[in-house]
Amino acid sequence: MSRSTWVSAAVLVVAIGTTAACGSGGDTGGGGTAGPRTGGTLTFAVGSDAGCVDPQQVGSNDTIYSVRQLVDSLTDQDPSSGEIVPWLAQSWQVSPDARTFTFHLRPGVTFSDGTPLTAQVVKANFDAVPGLGALGILAEGYLSGYTGTTVVDDRTAKVTFRQPNAQFLQATATHSLGIVAESSTRKSPQQRCSQGVVGSGPFVLAKYAPNQEITLARRRGYAWGSSLWRKQGEAYLDRLVFKVLPESGVRTGALQSGQVGAIGSVGRSDEAALRASGVHLQARANPGVVFGLSPNNARSPLNDEKVRQAISLAIDRRQIAETVFPAGTRPATSVLAHTTPGYTDLGTLLAYDRAKAASLLDEDGWTAGSDGVRQKNGTALRLTATWFSNAATNQPTLELVQQQLKAVGVRLELKELPIAQLVQVQQSGRFDLVWGNVTRADPDILRSSYSTHLANFYKLPKTGLDTLLDGQAAAADPAKRRPLVAQAQQEIARHAYVIPVVELQTELGVAKKVHDLRFDASSRIQLHDTWIG
Fold first, then answer.
1. How do beta strands 411-417 and 382-388 pair?
2. How far apart are CA 142 and CA 149, in angstroms?
3. 403-432 per-position pLDDT tens digit
4. Cis preceding-peptide flag for 301 (omega within 30 of 0)
5. What pTM does this model have?
6. pLDDT given at position 25
């Protein structure tokens, strides 16, 4: 079995910020306490609610923070090395062709309804994923080509695929394939979203008030945590309360006043004030598909490659990174963030060149109108960018992009929607451009997002890109996989199928009294080891 970070190092996320965290390992900086203490409630302020409390159906960070605590995964991923390590599975074997994965489960694990973890439960989980529908797109993508799970015995499950699936081992470390009780697999996707699921995690769902609050309670008797966690047994905290506070300034004020212990989506403008009040700021770069504009490649005028290329050239990525985002944020230099295994620096293809953007539009027949907006055959070059209210940086970023595109004669209108409507918008195809990102530290996120053989939300044409994406998914050998991923990034950037803008750097604010609130490998949070004192 290969434990290469190329095969296994990965992470995943749709869009935005986080909450409190101390460094990737260590204390958040509270002073003078005697040591970890059991008990207490951590209140965490987030900016949005995805409208669902099933980990297998949630893709927005603000909600992943809470629901991740409800489920355990077969494996975990070391955020420092990318190595895949034991959790619910004590060990595993991967066949040489990466089509068969055999997991040996640890004994004694139970779900919060008292039922045991068995290989049959693992099978029921994976068998149910295709039936989750639109909201289960991440989990379904990880199981692409799934042919079934064989129950070898109560503690041994053999998962097989139609074709090589090199990314699957890392996928078993994600929240999207977190294991739920068999009773939950029998519920409808809608019931799972609204009522929650039964997990084996260190916390259980106590209350869900959509767009207001998610409350979790400590799981009594919990004794099977990840091999990466410091504490054995139950979590320290009695309760976790995730408050939805959409306004960045309100979250900041709540943290400064002590009403909450941690916040996500810290804005650049709030950094100085938070530091001055003694709040610990923690940042971690997110791997995966960077923040950018995803065009509807089948919709006029974005089905014109020169229009897409001109938009990409007209965007000053460095100005955006340095103006809107937290200190240290990098402008995009590929469709993948630099922390993603297999990342290729394509900075020259994504360099800001307003003159070249204007020249491309001239060549393509777009002439300036009396109002400064370019026209062609009587049609104005007006586009709408749809964005979602799950990060404080979204609106100011797009307002800056709007100004930059105006300078080359492109009118960009902005349309805000709640994050719960993301999948609906993607599926409808009734959009020009969608703003967002997807976090995962495995380059297979390119196939999940842009293969025409899968959902193909952004209506890419069938080209040789599909061959590259399928090829890297089948390459268990990192040396063979790497050049395919590099070529895929080049094809995406060259044809501007996607318009990368800026890398996501998750920044959290954590009160002094909150300790050991850590990022996991996906730059989300792990709260089993967190304590207040």
1. parallel
2. 14
3. 999 999 999 999 999 988 988 999 999 999
4. yes
5. 0.80
6. 36
